[in-house]
Structure formats: C-alpha cells, structure tokens
DUF2269 family protein (Paenibacillus solanacearum), 143 residues
Amino acid sequence: MYPWLVFIHSVSAMVSIGPFFVLIPMLRKLQTAEGELQASYLDSFHFVVRLSKHAGHVLVASGLLLMWLGKWHWSEPWIAGTFAVLFASLLFMARAFSPTIRKLRQPVSDRAALLRKLSRSLYLYLFVLFVMLWLMIMKPQLW
C-alpha cells in the first residue's frame, strides 16, 4: 500500500503544480484579449486554481498517510517546513487569484495593474510550490 500512496502523492503534486505553467503564456495573451476570449482565459485561470486546490487536498491527505505509515515524525525539519510553507501558501492562494480574477471580469479602469498582480501572484505561487517540492524531495536537515 505504501508504494501506491507514494504514487498518488507524486501524481497529486504534479497536478497541483503542472497546470500553472500553462498559464504563463496565457498571461501574455490575456493582456490583449477582449470579450469572450478574455472570459475564456479567465475561466482557464479559475479552473487551474480550483484543480490545484483539489489536488492539494489529495496531496495533503496522502502525505499524512505516508507520514503515519512511514513512521515520519512532525518534528522532522522538512515536514515542519513543508507544513509551514503549505499553510502560508493556502492563505496566499485564497487572496491572490480568485479576487483578482473576479475584478478582471468586471469592467475596470486599471486592467494593466490587475494583470501585473495576477502575473506576480502566479510566479510567486510557483516559487512557493517549488519550495515545498524541494523540501519533500531533498528532505533537508534545516535544524
């Protein structure tokens, strides 16, 4: 059962991170998109955020099961660090994407600023996801 949980954990990590890379070229196209095209790009952003959120639920659940079955302790530096970054990323994700996407759907005067905020949020969130991935793979002894 443990190898299957590792597989599920790995796939859920890929599903949590991978779709965000599709959004990078979409950001450039979103700058000039209007009407239906803009709505479809924003729908794609919203879908990726929701997909990542739900894959994250599987990721956390499988990670907790792996900790329990593998006899890992909460005091392991890489586990404590991963959970600290995870909780920070949850707060960040809740405030970074959905409110900005909602504002972009409305007729706004400062669309460029909202797109910069969305872009900055995307790159920052990818960085945070890679920090968590690094912690899980490398298992560094931080203290």
Remarks:
- Residues 18 and 52 are 9 Å apart (CA to CA).
- The first helix runs from residue 2 to 17.
